[in-house]
Amino acid sequence: xxxxxxxxxxxxxxxxxxxxxxxxxxxxxxxxxxxxxxxxxxxxxxxxxxxxxxxxxxxxxxxxxxxxxxxxxxxxxxxxxxxxxxxxxxxxxxxxxxxxxxxxxxxxxxxxxxxxxxxxxxxxxxxxxxxxxxxxxxxxxxxxxxxxxxxxx
Length: 153
Known about the structure:
It is a single chain. The protein is elongated and about 50 Å long. It is built from seven helices and three strands. The chain has helices spanning 14-40, 44-49, 57-78, 82-86, 102-116, 121-124, 135-140, and strands at 10-11, 89-93, 142-146. The longest helix is centred in the N-terminal third of the chain and has 27 residues, at 14-40. By secondary structure, it is mainly alpha-helical. Strands 1-3-2 form a three-stranded antiparallel beta sheet. It has one domain (9-146).
């Protein structure tokens, strides 16, 4: 997809994107596990199981801030997270097929809430949409595309 022409686009479908999310979850879990282990030492299990303690700065950071920085940061810098890079897809502007703007990346991440709230229907929509866009993609006007070779769906 060097020239960005629509004829060369291969849209990233539901399963390839699901695989990318699984890989990203493993990365985020690893980062969180190591950081919490460093912060709490042997007491990391108590921290992890301490949901009854309520909201703490650490929980807000690891559950909300870190994932937002990871996703939006990688989308802005690389047009893809580590998971998307491993499955060879990236995020582009739906109109120009070029790099999505930082604002589009932020809106796309916030659009995850819209996609997730009604039982994840906004994500499932990817499987049925002609351009394989989830609701968050439609809101941010982005596409997930791969190389000119066929992607496994």
